Amino acid sequence: EVALDRKLRVLLVEDHETVRHGLKLLIDREPDLEVVGEASDAAQAIECGALSELDVVVMDISMPGVSGIVATRRLKELRPQLPVVSLTRHADQTFLEELLRAGGSAYVLKQSPHAELLRAIRAAAAGQQYVDPALVHHLAAPFTSAERKRTGRTSSRLSDRETEVLRLVAQGHSNKEIAARLNLSHKTIEV
Question: How far is 169 from 150, CA to CA, in rounded Å?
Answer without folding.
Answer: 28
